[in-house]
Specification:
The chain is mostly helical. It has helices spanning 8-25, 30-52, 56-70. Helices cover 79% and strands 0% of the residues.
Length: 71
């Protein structure tokens, strides 16, 4: 990630996600909330990769590269 992406808006979005997690910790174990947050991020990133592909063939061609990037 380039430094140009680390804007005030970037941090505000991250803070909103953290605020939701902090709210959930009031009713759930912190480990469970952490796992749910990581799962949600993985699902959202998978959606993002799929949404950016112009075709199923392009998505399939980029899938392995996306997996390597995210792990």
């Amino acid at each position: 990630m380039s430094d140009g992406m680390l804007t005030k808006e970037f941090y505000a979005r991250a803070d909103e996600v953290i605020a939701v997690a902090n709210k959930q910790v009031k009713d759930a174990d912190v480990g469970a909330v952490s796992s749910s947050t990581l799962y949600a991020a993985a699902r959202y990133n998978a959606f993002n990769v799929a949404a950016m592909a112009e075709s199923l063939e392009e998505f399939k061609g980029e899938k392995d590269e996306a997996i390597r990037f995210f792990i």
